[in-house]
Specification:
The protein is mainly alpha-helical. The protein has a domain at about 150-263. It has helices at about 5-25, 30-50, 50-75, 85-100, 110-130, 140-145, 165-190, 200-220, 225-250, 255-260; strands at about 150, 155. A two-stranded antiparallel sheet has the order 1-2. Strand 1 and strand 2 (about 155) form a beta hairpin. It is elongated, with a radius of gyration of 23 Å. Interacts with the Sec translocase complex via SecD. Specifically interacts with transmembrane segments of nascent integral membrane proteins during membrane integration.
Length: about 260
C-alpha cells in the first residue's frame, strides 16, 4: 500500500461527500458545475485544515527576518576563522540568536507536512479523471465524473487539441487562468513579501524568473493533464492568491517592500 493511499482515500471521501451533498440539493449528478463545485469544496476544506501550518510558516518567516541582520553580523565577525574553537563559538552564537528570535530548527516542517497532501490531491483528481476508482470515489462516481463536461468538453479530456473550437477554448482558458493567477501571486504578492537583502545573486536571479517559470509550467502542463486537474489548479491558485494577499497586507515579513508599505 502506498504511503499516500490513506490520504488519497480521505480526500476521495470528501470529494464524494461534497458531490452527494450537492446532488441532494438538486444539482445534476453528472453536471460539470456539480463536480467543479465539489472540487472547489475539496480545495477549500484542505486549505482550511492546512491553515495552522500556514500561520506557523508566517511566524517563522518573521522570526527569520528579525534574526537575519544579527546572523549576518556573526558571520562577518567569524569570516575566515576556521579553527575548531571559532567554528564552535560561531555555531553557539547562531543558535543563541535563533533561539532569542524564535527561529525553529524545524522551520521547514510545515512544508514537509503539506507536501504529501498536495501530491495525494493531485493524484486523486488525475486518477479519477482517468477512470480509476479511489476509495469512496467508486465506479459510479468515477463514471459520473468522466461523463461531466464543460460546454461539451469532458472533465476527463486531455490536451489543447480536441474536437472543435470549444475544446481548445475551454482547455486554453483554464490553463491561461491558472497561469495568470500563479504569475500575479508570485510577481506582485509573494515577491514583495520576500526578504532578499544580502541574498546571493543566484537566489535573486531565481526569484526574478520564478513567476514566469511557474506560469509557463502551468501552460505546458495544460497540454497533457486532464481538464479536471486544470479546474483544480484554478481553484487552488485562486485560494493561494487570496491567502498570500492577506498575509502580505496584514502580516508582511519585516524588511520587505510589503512591510514598508504597511508601515
Amino acid at each position: 500500500m502506498s504511503l499516500l493511499e490513506p490520504i488519497s482515500h480521505a480526500l476521495a471521501a470528501v470529494l464524494a461527500t461534497a458531490h452527494h451533498a450537492l446532488t441532494s440539493l438538486g444539482a445534476a449528478p453528472d453536471g460539470a458545475a456539480t463536480w467543479v463545485l465539489a472540487t472547489a469544496s475539496l480545495v477549500l476544506l484542505v486549505r482550511l485544515l492546512l491553515l495552522p501550518f500556514v500561520v506557523h510558516g508566517v511566524r517563522q518567516a518573521h522570526a527569520a527576518a528579525r534574526a537575519r541582520p544579527h546572523l549576518r553580523g556573526i558571520a562577518e565577525r567569524y569570516r575566515g576563522r576556521t579553527d575548531a574553537d571559532s567554528v564552535r563559538a560561531h555555531l553557539d552564537e547562531r543558535r543563541t540568536v535563533s533561539a532569542e528570535h524564535g527561529v525553529s530548527r524545524l522551520g521547514c516542517l510545515p512544508v514537509l507536512v503539506q507536501l504529501p497532501v498536495w501530491v495525494a490531491l493531485y493524484h486523486l483528481v488525475s486518477d479519477v479523471a482517468s477512470g480509476t476508482v479511489v476509495g469512496a470515489m467508486d465506479a459510479g462516481l468515477v463514471s459520473s465524473f468522466g461523463a461531466a463536461s464543460i460546454v461539451g468538453v469532458s472533465l476527463a479530456g486531455h490536451g489543447y487539441v480536441g474536437p472543435g473550437a470549444a475544446h481548445v477554448a475551454v482547455v486554453a482558458g483554464l490553463a491561461v487562468t491558472a497561469a495568470l493567477l500563479s504569475y500575479v501571486t508570485q510577481r506582485y504578492v509573494v515577491a514583495p513579501n520576500t526578504p532578499l537583502e544580502g541574498m546571493p545573486e543566484a537566489v535573486l536571479a531565481a526569484q526574478r524568473v520564478m513567476p514566469a517559470l511557474s506560469a509557463g509550467g502551468l501552460l505546458l502542463a495544460g497540454g497533457v493533464v486532464p481538464v479536471a486537474l486544470l479546474v483544480y489548479w484554478v481553484c487552488s491558485q485562486t485560494w493561494t492568491l487570496g491567502q498570500s494577499a492577506v498575509v502580505a497586507r496584514w502580516w508582511p515579513t519585516p524588511g520587505t517592500p510589503a512591510a514598508a508599505r504597511r508601515a
